[in-house]
Amino acid sequence: MTATEVPAIAGAHLFEPTPHADERGFFCRTFDADVVRSVGLDPDAFVQDSLSRSVRGVLRGLHLRSGAGEAKLVRCSYGRVFDVVVDLRPHSPTYRNRAFFELSDQTQATLYVPAGCAHGFQALTGTADVSYRIDRPHDPAEDVTIAFDDPELAIPWPLPVTAMSRRDREAPLLAEALRPQGS
């Protein structure tokens, strides 16, 4: 497994496994504490695993957490997704940068999304399963959602959106979502 820094998003990394393929299929390690540790992350910090299943065209995001934020490891275990990270950490050298990835079951690559970055994806295949490993228990009261089609972000979603949650559909633009409460 190799770890590569994502230049557009400070602190983000892409972990790419080394698959061992034969006539049966393949085997690969999708998480390696030593490799995670080698890039300065604490592998023991991750406390919750989740899984989402989406069909082609479904869009999930853009999501982040308020307060201390939430770091996550994201992997498409089945199918393919167009994955997006937006750096919303005001003091980051890559503040407001965007990075796009295709995550798939063919590569089993895992993306580390630092706390304070928004994340979203769109399913590119009939079925796409996305696994998340997050560094603190989910608290719905801290959920922040940003409009997927915000012109300021200009994310080039590859497909027409076939479905999304009401929360995602009604999400505010970035400027409004980041405005301090009471302003």
Give a description of the structure.
There is one protein chain. With 183 residues, the chain is mostly beta strands. The protein is built from 3 helices and 13 strands. Strands 1-2-10-7-12-5 form a 6-stranded antiparallel β-sheet. Strands 9-8-11-6-13 form a 5-stranded antiparallel β-sheet, with no helix packed on it. A two-stranded antiparallel sheet has the order 3-4. A hairpin with a 2-residue loop joins strand 3 (20-22) and strand 4 (25-27). The protein is globular, with a radius of gyration of 16 Å. The chain starts with a strand and ends in a 6-residue tail after the last helix. The model has no long low-confidence stretch (mean pLDDT 95).
Which characteristics define this entry?
183 residues; five-stranded antiparallel sheet; six-stranded antiparallel sheet; 3 helices; mainly beta
Work out the strand percent: 35-45%
pLDDT < 50 stretches: none
Arithmetic mean of pLDDT: 95
Number of helices: 3
Rg (C-alpha, Å): 16 Å
Going across the major beta sheet, what is the strand order?
A: 1-2-10-7-12-5
Q: Give the end-to-end Cα distance, rounded to a whole number of Å.
A: 46 Å
Major β-sheet annotation: 6 strands, antiparallel
Structural class: mainly beta
How many DSSP E strands? 13
Pattern of helices and strands: EEEEHEEEEEEEEEHH
Shape: globular
Query: Which percent bin holds the helix content?
Result: under 10%
